[in-house]
Design a protein that fits this description.
Blueprint (H helix, E strand, L loop, with lengths): L1 E2 L17 E2 L11 E4 L2 E5 L4 H9 L3 E2 L11 H5 L8 H4 L6 E7 L4 E6 L4 H7 L8 E8 L1 E2 L3 E8 L3 H12 L6 E7 L2 E10 L10 E5 L19 E11 L3 H9 L11 E10 L17 E12 L2 H20 L3 E3 L8 H8 L1 H12 L10 H9 L7 H8 L3 E2 L1
Parallel strand pairs: 1-2
Antiparallel strand pairs: 3-4, 4-8, 5-9, 6-7, 6-8, 7-18, 10-12, 10-13, 11-12, 11-15, 14-16, 14-17, 15-16
Helix pairs in contact: 5-6, 8-10, 9-10
């Protein structure tokens, strides 16, 4: 059984052959949103962020963090962590989940939070569906501001861009940040939200309606690539203060085979997580309060040799990321063999295997590399009847 949200995924994560594919029905989701008061909203996991944000804006609220492509599902992005330009202020999307309703391998459903089934909560969010299907979530929201004030900057070199990004990462007054290398142009945006339409006085600063991300360019294209095109991308996240050597590792490859023959884009975000953030098992941010993410996106004509070479480049960059104390964002083309997975996640893999056995999830998303690595780390993981009875207390069958 393979789980997926809107079907927008990388490297076959939500592709299945000869198995049951479980997906959402987003057209029915809007009617199921519940306003719980105090800025909390209960949301079906199949709803798109686009529809949810429109719904919230009519009520004067907004999601703290949005992905750059809003037509992905709420459950889909929460299953990988969720990041965007707002992460400079609010961290990851999972940091704003009050509780989550999970369906386990028996079809039973339970609500999980920091206080109720906290281990499942910690493994499910950012867990690629390995700890169960996200059915519903309760999200914390923030006030919606009508305007966003955006400062645009150009940068002459990647070194200059790295220094600029590190400087912004040290500030705590920035609401949004994004930088990119796209079509040979190095640029960044820094933004602040507010209700005044005249706040922006700085040079190259514009005030835009916050609709959201008006004037911003989505990383994800809204159309499918041509049949002879291949897209491979991945993201790496390192602690602030260590971004320059990570970007330098990419720069050293820009004029070498195969990156010099493919269309490539770099995408950079700042992630400032709350001080009391839950230590989710598999998200790319460890204990650093501020981190910087670097996405490497490639597009090229279908050629197995080029694809293999790019995967080798990605593997080298992943090793460098790990050396700098970082992690990959699991939504991407990451060559996570058992050894590297154990280096990154260690005891979490053992506990993942135990939880999957405990909740009868061995048949769910079993093709994912971390599931395989968990089986290798603890091949004897078994269900413990007493634990099962304890975990199932208060659940309801569906």
């Amino acid at each position: 059984m393979t789980l997926r949200g809107a079907g927008h995924s990388c490297d076959g994560q939500t592709v299945t052959a000869g198995e049951l594919l479980v997906t959402y029905a987003p057209d029915t989701a809007a009617a199921q949103v519940r306003d719980l008061g105090q800025g909390l909203f209960e949301v079906p996991a199949g709803m798109s962020w686009h529809r949810l944000e429109r719904y919230l804006h009519h009520r004067g609220r907004a999601a703290p963090v949005l992905p750059n492509y809003l037509h992905m599902s709420v459950g889909g992005t929460l299953s990988v962590g969720g990041a965007g330009v707002d992460s400079a202020r609010y961290g990851m999307q999972v940091d704003h989940v009050e509780r989550v309703q999970l369906i386990d391998g028996t079809g039973s459903s339970r609500w999980c939070s920091r206080h109720d089934h906290p281990e499942l909560f910690r493994f499910a969010l950012g867990g690629l569906g390995m700890a169960g299907l996200i059915e519903r979530v309760v999200l914390r929201t923030v006030p919606h501001h009508r305007y966003i004030h955006v400062h645009h900057a150009r940068h002459a070199t990647l070194t200059e861009l790295a220094e600029h990004t590190e400087q912004i990462a040290q500030r705590d007054d920035v609401d949004i940040y994004r930088a990119s290398l796209r079509r040979g142009r190095l640029a960044s945006i820094t933004g602040w939200r507010g209700s005044e339409s005249t706040r922006c006085h700085a040079e190259k600063c514009v005030t835009l309606p916050n609709l959201p991300h008006a004037g911003d360019i989505d990383v994800a294209e809204t159309h499918a690539p041509a049949s002879d095109q291949v897209q491979l991308w991945t993201d790496y996240v390192v602690p602030a203060g260590r971004f320059a050597p990570m970007l330098a590792a990419v720069e050293a490859l820009l004029h070498r085979e195969p990156l010099n023959r493919v269309h490539m884009m770099l995408y950079i975000l700042i992630l400032r997580r709350p001080l009391d953030a839950t230590p989710f098992a598999f998200i790319p941010v460890r204990t650093a309060p501020v981190s910087i993410g670097l996405g490497v996106y490639t597009s090229f004509n279908k050629d197995p040799a080029v694809a293999a070479a790019i995967r080798a480049v990605f593997r080298g960059l992943l090793e460098r990321c790990c050396d700098l104390g970082g992690r990959p964002y699991l939504y991407g083309a990451n060559d996570l063999d058992d050894s590297l997975a154990n280096r990154l996640y260690g005891a979490e893999l053992v506990r993942l295997a135990q939880l999957r056995s405990l909740h009868r999830l061995e048949h769910v998303n079993a093709h994912l590399p971390l599931v395989r690595a968990g089986r290798v780390a603890d091949p004897s993981a078994k269900r413990h009847p007493q634990d099962w009875e304890y975990e199932c207390a208060g659940t309801r069958p569906i």
